[in-house]
Amino acid sequence: MPSNKSVSDAPIVQFTNCRILRDHQLQREDLWVREGKILNPEKLFFDEKGSADVQLDCKDSIIAPGFIDVQINGGFGVDFSLATDDFKSGIDLVSQKILSHGVTSFCPTLVTSPPSVYHQVLPQISVRNGGVHGAGILGAHLEGPFISKEKKGAHPEHCLRSFEAGAFQDLLATYGSLDCVRIVTLAPEMRRSSEVIQELTERGICVSLGHSVANLSQAEEAVQHGATFITHLFNAMLPFHHRDPGIVGLLTSDKIPAGRRVFYGMISDGIHTNPAALRIAHRAHPKGLVLVTDAIAGMGLAPGRHTLGQQVVEIDGLNTYIAGTKTLSGSVATMDTCVRHFQEATGCSVETALEAASLHPAQLLGIEHKKGTLNYDSDADFLMLNDNLYVQATYIAGEEVWRQDASGM
Amino acid sequence: MRLVILEDYDQASEWAAKYICNRIIQFKPSQGRYFTLGLPTGNTPLGCYKKLIEYHKNGDLSFKYVKTFNMDEYVGLPRNHPESYHSYMWNNFFKHIDIDPNNAHILDGNAPDLQVECDAFEKKIEEAGGIDLFVGGIGPDGHIAFNEPGSSLSSRTRLKTLAMDTILANAKYFDGDLSKVPTMALTVGVGTVMDAREVMILITGAHKAFALYKAIEEGVNHMWTVSAFQQHPRTIFVCDEDATLELRVKTVKYFKG
After folding, report:
1. Where do the Glucosamine/galactosamine-6-phosphate isomerase domain residues begin and end (chain B) (predicted)?
2. How far is A42 from chain B (nearest CA, A)?
């Protein structure tokens, strides 16, 4: 018996025989979807006297909110830091391919690049909803160039910059436009960073600390001015020291303003961080952990040489280094691999692992009222997974956009 | 009356569920000819609802042509509050079965005019052709629905203030905070339930034993409103051994046959 159409004519789909992630637990409940959003079936029953038009048996799958990747530099041969003629089709390709990894929203990330690259590339990135064409774009993540020389990692030294002359104006001139920028990673020890952080925060841009030699006080000051994220914790920052924990100390700092939470990205590909370090971070501040892939162009391709902005990187298995060195440069892990590895390494619950890739990034970006959960009225971006957390199907706005086919491809 | 005594809560729940199931199936409900069921809330019927859901999921029982009328609902509690009877019915029963939402009737404790709401409810029952089987429970103070001690035995659906006993008993569902417990409710009357063609009262647990004794071994009395059913032509009391603890051995032996 379909709804009485008093509120909407749109068909109502009821996903049955599943376990859904809601209120931090896997619950044996059905998932109801209408017009691209999660529907409250009790309200439907009592207010509209409605019921489902279609019932789909999910064969006991886990249904979780779609993954959100806030740090991804490219993949499948596409490099977001390269201003190519077919940049747009490159971003489209990646957004389509990552659906099979369970990613339903992402922030295309640009590593340190010359201003000309930002000026050419950023206007070609637009915030847009996902769908069958691919995962949704939440905005760009600009990692650099306002970072520390000592912790540049794989970023090209000749492109590093400072904003000590003109502060925010320097930053704006470098990037050209901040219209579709969602996250900026910078090193807070740089002179005038507080002004810049404050200005970016006021514009609704998430400021992340990374590629930095900041000590804990500098990091705390940055947080007080608005910074809310740490880019790939442990990597490209001073190591934890018991008398100056550095940026890592933010996880347990008592100087975080009330009501705010500091989030931290972790690349749990098994290479960037030793599992013991991953566990220390997770146990110290479980609610702040955000899984990111930091994937590069070579992700999804065969081992060999690929680009990462102005650099050449070499891929061997899951290891990616600046060609000829032992400097790590991004990863080729996929988001679902990171979720599985995180769960294994920490022994955490399935719910915790899934939330680290969905709820937490949504909270970081302040969009948890519509993404990152299966709460009523949220966008119906979700995944069907088996018990081992392998993605079986991906849905965006209630529509199936990817399904594992029988051959397991 | 019939007094059916089962060994424990689970068996009593199953017996009651099977009875309801068989009644519906024997009636052969169809388009335009609905089986009307009166339904209770609370702890006691939970096992019975679970069994009915099981029969439905096994394909043995459909609620497609069943109309339901719940006994009561709190006044002033938001409909989606976890302790409202709407929430109870949705979570424990309606969401698991195939009932048409248009056929599931529960009093609206937030209606703008509560008496109009009650009168309309009586009318809906009448329009549905009356209730075929009204399933109810009993409070420790012998009340049926929210017909507290002192309620008229000919009462109809109306607004009632809850007795202190009831509020105390309900406090556990509201974090033990008495100030959070609703003090008023809309309820079918004793007379409303008496109009049903058949009545089944579920009573389980030692804490209900005294009320059962008062209801069936003493006289008809408005202080123990369930006693009114001594005068109903077709009533079954379904209970477990513990609920019989205050009855005379003679009564129990008679009904155990």
Report:
1. 8-232
2. 7
A45 and B102 in contact by Cβ < 8 A?
A: no
**A48: nearest CA in chain B?**
B101
Kindly list the distances between the CA atom of residue A97 and the CA atoms of A101, B143, B185, in Å, as whole numbers in the listed order.
Answer: 8, 64, 57
At B154-196, the pLDDT tens digits run 999 999 998 888 888 888 889 888 888 999 999 999 999 999 9
The verdict on residue B144 lying in a domain is yes
Average pLDDT score over chain A: 94
Residues A80 and A110: beta-carbon distance below 8 Å: yes
Report yes or no on B257 lying in a domain: no
What are residue A312's phi and psi, to 5 degrees?
A: -110, 130
Has the ipTM of the complex gone over 0.90?
A: yes
Report DSSP state, residue B224: B
* Domain-located, residue B105: yes
Q: Which domain holds residue B239?
A: 2-252
Q: CB of A87 within 8 A of CB of A39?
A: no
In the numeric block, the tokens 């009448």 are attached to B126
- Indicate the number of domains in chain B: 1
Q: What's the pLDDT score for residue A4? A: 57
Which CATH number do you get for residue B92?
A: 3.40.50.1360
Chain A residue numbers with beta carbons less than 8 Å from the beta carbon of B87 are 42
Q: What CA–CA distances, in Å, run from A14 to A50, A55, A61, A371, A399?
A: 12, 5, 14, 20, 13
* CA–CA distances in Å: residue A390 to residues A136, A335, A337, A352: 21, 11, 8, 16
pTM above 0.95, yes or no: no
What is each CA distance from A251 to A103, A289, A327, B138, B140, in whole angstroms? Answer: 26, 10, 26, 55, 54
Annotated catalytic residue: which of B122, B148, B195, B240?
B148
CB contact under 8 A, B100 and A51: yes
Instruction: Please report the sign of the dihedral spanned by the C-alpha atoms of residue A100, residue A102, residue A107, residue A113.
Output: negative
Please, what are the domains in chain A?
Answer: 13-64+373-403 (2.30.40.10), 66-365 (3.20.20.140)
Alpha helix (H) residue ranges in A55-187 = 87-97, 115-121, 168-175
